[in-house]
Design brief:
The complex is a heterodimer of chains A (about 400) and B (about 500). Helix content of chain A is about 75%, strand content about 0%. Chain A has about 400 residues and is an all-alpha fold. Chain A is globular, with a radius of gyration of 22 Å. The relative contact order of chain A is 0.21. With about 500 residues, chain B is of the alpha/beta class. The chains are: A mainly alpha (about 400), B alpha/beta (about 500). Chains A and B meet through helix 11, helix 12 and helix 13 of A and helix 10, helix 11 and helix 13 of B.
Chain lengths: ~400, ~500
């Protein structure tokens, strides 16, 4: 396949990685850096110390895990309002398994994850096979799960959890393991990159431009190293952050490298065209809700491990933070557009505002106001640039 | 008072360089029923949109006069204030509202700013009685039959004494009894001095009710005659009378085995309960192009999409693929049996507009299989690149979002998508609608290439020259029924049009 004249499209690595429409996600990386600089200046550097950055990542992890599942839901042009309640319920069940029934930590966690998965499937079935709009199904789910949780806990805190359970949220990776992981990630990345180049050379395919690929590689190496280094300056990588990274890696792979992911983007972009192309639309939607539920279960486990107890109001309003993170990170509620890394950046933006404003001793109400404004501004920025383009 | 209540003179309307109307003129007398006839796309609806202000003054050239005075409408509101009322082919009723609410929508009777429901109900009741409609004024509109809704639509239009009433295919979905009611009402309106422009494909109705008939073809006025000087066959000749140009590449058909056989196929729409296809039977052989002709609403799309398993409704009958009976439950099933369907509306059903060309093209190919199958982007790029090359799609890069392409190139991407599943039977529904002549020719060539490699092609098309120029045999539908299947040697425009009108 020697001659590619003007079809040399794969050069455009940035485009194929995140998709053309995620200008918003890029903007938000810049916004995030700006936010950090601003908070560092305002707090005289308190914001940027390793201890606080470690806290920031840890605090953002729960929203980020939910946002990863929510990304798939929103990309498929649906919505899941139940994840906050489901987080609470899953955590509550895990806590009851351990505290009341004395199950070991692993079984209790599995119970929590199963609760999330099963209720996710339940909601997905209503949406996909019974044609009830997801807004309604998950609004119902939000009430139902919260109700069950209140009933199960009787309004009391379920404690104490065993130390091994608490470790999920409160432990850190040893510094050596952190370094090994960092090196591993960098090695795998470089290996994949060179293997891809080799395959393409062999197949006589157009290469991505070496320059931009090297720049990306350097960015990945520097950021990974810096991340591990900063975390190790404090206590090491927090376990919830590790969980988030694993979840993010799996779901990025699912979304971008599997048929399942391709189908979700297609059916979110145009359900009718997807159906006419033979895509099993209903099965895919069922799966999307099941995965969202599963991640709510995981968040529930992480959450009660951090709080040390299962409570009746755990996870309240988490769904709104997750949706906001997706939107800030470039997902379109119209469907078909969004990315896992973008949503994680969105979660970090939200987490940074919470964290920075707490350090500044701003009254909590300001956090709500500022976060609300950020959501509107993020989408407005995107829309206004699109609108200008449309007019010219 | 002028001799004419309405004069439209030398109306020309262009859509991005294509003339939809080319110096069209039509004149209507007071109290006259003036029929407007023409093929799909002849310009009838465009002309009526010009009249009603949907296309405001200045977006077309030409003069509109009412009672001899020139008018310049900028909106539908202005034209209706001038006494022009249009009833469109599609119903414009709000299903959840009551009948009386729809009749008075946007024009509610009110006293002191408060709407008076009882007054509207009484008025609505009078109108319904006149239309011999046995429904309560506050019945929900969605609970009425299609014919009844059509009558409500007309009632809504005439409640304000329109001077000029335009009816666009008012009887397309009606039963004979309902048609009689409407024709009676139209005659009644005429007695009261209303002028009526009546657009219909049903020539028998036209002949029985019209005073004057104007025929449009390809955006031009072909002629205006008193009904006494016209006949059904004369109208048809005027509608189609054009020579088939050398637009179509020639090919020698070499037919193989029967690829697709459909026997006594009936389809019932699950929402309206109407039987949209009745007892259709046909077959297509390897290497053959079967053209499917008919007017809009004849059931052609319903026929092909139901065979593909994509129509929301109950089906009855038998489909055989290479002699074996198959039960197709959905598009994925159809693909397993080697059937592809290039859908009628590429933007609604064919493409994911925000996705790039590569992902759109590989969509059907990658639709089947286990969800966790890892994508092979090099392989995907390679096969997509080949087919895009072969179809000569003009684009800068495969990562271009498909929405930025021209109509012709978008259509080629849809076709490319189906080429990738290597179909044995390819159905194309309006494959060249809205694309330029060059892209059309390329699609025709591609169809010939497909048939020469033994693929059976079914082509639904509203463009008669295309059907006549490309097909080996032509199946003509009307009112959900197959009216006849003509071999190419026996087919001509008049014969096809006669069958499409439902006559013999």
């Amino acid at each position: 396949m020697p001659d590619f004249d003007n079809l040399t499209s794969m050069n455009d690595s940035k485009r194929s990685l995140f998709g053309r429409l995620n200008i918003r996600a890029y903007t938000m990386v810049i916004a995030l850096v700006g936010l950090w600089v601003l908070f560092s200046a305002l707090t005289h550097g308190l914001f940027i110390v390793p201890r606080n950055l470690s806290n920031l990542f840890e605090q953002s992890a729960e929203t980020a895990i939910l946002a990863v599942g929510m990304t798939l839901v929103i990309v498929s042009a649906e919505i899941d309002l139940s994840v906050g309640s489901l987080t609470g319920l899953s955590g509550g069940v895990a806590a009851i398994c351990q505290v009341t029934f004395h199950w070991n930590t692993v079984l209790s966690i599995v119970a929590g994850l199963l609760v999330g998965l099963i209720f996710g499937l339940f909601q997905g079935w209503w949406v996909a096979y019974q044609h009830v709009p997801s807004f309604i199904v998950t609004l119902g789910g939000m009430l139902i799960f919260r109700g069950i949780l209140i009933g199960l806990t009787n309004g009391t805190s379920i404690a104490p959890l065993s130390n091994s359970f608490l470790d999920i949220s409160q432990a850190y990776l040893s510094k050596l393991i952190g370094i090994i992981l960092g090196v591993l990630v960098i090695a795998v990345y470089l290996f994949m990159m060179f293997r891809q180049r080799r395959v393409r050379t062999k197949m006589q395919f157009p290469q991505k431009a070496l320059g931009s690929q090297l720049a990306t590689a350097i960015a990945v190496v520097v950021l990974s190293a810096a991340f591990v280094y900063v975390m190790n300056l404090y206590s090491g990588i927090p376990v919830p952050v590790l969980i988030l990274l694993v979840v993010a890696a799996i779901f990025t792979f699912l979304a971008t490298r599997t048929r399942f992911g391709r189908h979700v983007y297609a059916l979110g972009g145009n359900r009718e065209a997807a159906r006419m192309s033979g895509i099993p639309v209903r099965r895919r939607i069922l799966t999307v809700f099941a995965l969202s539920g599963l991640l709510a279960g995981l968040t529930g486990v992480v959450l009660i491990a951090r709080m040390g107890a299962g409570t009746a109001d755990a996870g309240t309003n988490f769904e709104l933070d997750a949706i906001a993170a997706c939107v800030i990170g470039g997902s379109s509620l119209m469907g078909g557009v969004g990315s896992v890394p973008g949503s994680i950046i969105g979660a970090l933006v939200m987490g940074s505002i919470d964290n920075g404003m707490s350090i500044l001793n701003a009254a909590p109400f300001w956090q709500y106001v500022v976060k609300g404004l950020i959501i509107i501004l993020a989408v407005w920025f995107d829309m206004s640039s699109k609108y200008r383009k449309g007019n010219s | 008072m002028s001799e004419w209540i309405l004069e439209m003179e030398n109306i020309t309307k262009e859509f991005s360089g294509v003339k939809a109307l080319d110096r069209v003129s039509i004149k209507v007398r007071p109290g006259e029923i003036h029929a407007l006839c023409g093929e799909n796309g002849a310009g009838k609806s465009t002309l009526m949109n010009v009249l009603s202000g949907v296309y405001p003054h200045g977006t077309f050239t030409g003069v509109i006069k009412i009672r001899g005075e020139e008018v310049k409408f900028n909106s539908v509101r202005e034209s209706s204030a001038a006494g022009i009322s249009i009833i469109h082919q599609e119903l414009n009723l709000i299903p959840e509202l009551g009948v009386y609410e729809n009749i008075f929508l946007g024009d509610e009777l009110a006293r002191g700013g408060v709407i008076s429901i009882s007054a509207m109900q009484v008025e609505a009741q009078k109108l319904l009685e006149r239309f011999k409609l046995q429904v309560s004024p506050d019945a929900k509109t969605k609970n009425l039959g299609i014919g009844e809704q059509q009558l409500v639509e007309i009632a809504k239009a005439i409640k304000n004494k329109a001077d000029i009433l335009v009816l666009d295919e008012p009887t397309a979905a009606l039963t004979d009894r309902e048609v009689d009611i409407i024709l009676e009402i139209i005659r009644d309106l005429k007695q009261n001095g209303t002028s009526i422009i009546y657009i219909s494909h049903k020539l028998k109705e036209v002949m029985s009710i019209a005073d004057t008939i104007t025929v449009l073809r390809d955006g031009k006025t072909i002629g205006t005659n008193a009904v006494a000087d016209m006949s059904e066959s004369k109208i048809i000749t005027m509608m189609v009378g054009r020579d088939i140009s050398t637009l179509f590449p020639k090919r020698e058909a070499s037919l193989g085995a029967v690829a697709l056989e459909v026997v006594n196929w009936s389809v019932r729409d699950s929402q309206t309960g109407r039987e949209v296809v009745q007892n259709a039977s046909f077959e297509v052989r390897e290497g053959e192009i079967l053209g499917v002709a008919g007017l809009i609403g004849a059931g052609r799309t319903e026929l092909v999409s139901s065979i593909f398993g994509a129509y929301e409704g109950q089906t009855q009958g038998t489909v055989r693929v290479f002699g074996k009976e198959v039960h197709i439950k959905g598009p994925a099933d159809a693909m397993k049996h080697g059937i592809g369907l290039v859908t009628e509306d590429r933007k609604e059903q064919g493409l994911v507009l925000n996705m790039d060309v590569q992902r759109n093209t590989s969509l059907a190919k990658l639709a089947s299989g286990f969800g966790l199958n890892v994508l092979n982007d090099v392989g995907e790029f390679s096969i997509v690149h080949d087919v895009i090359r072969r179809l000569n799609v003009k684009l800068h890069s495969l990562t271009t979002p498909v929405r930025t392409l021209s109509g012709g190139n978008q259509q080629k991407v849809v076709v490319a998508k189906w080429m990738l599943i290597h179909p044995k039977i390819l159905i194309l529904d309006e494959p060249t609608r809205g694309i330029d002549v060059g892209a059309k020719y390329e699609i025709y060539e591609l169809m010939n290439e497909l048939t020469s490699s033994g693929i059976a092609v079914v082509m639904v098309s509203s463009e008669l020259p295309e059907v006549l120029g490309m097909s080996d045999r032509i199946l003509v539908m009307a009112y959900g029924r197959v009216q006849g299947i003509l071999p190419r040697s026996e087919a001509n425009e008049v014969k096809v049009m006669e069958l499409a009108m439902g006559g013999n």
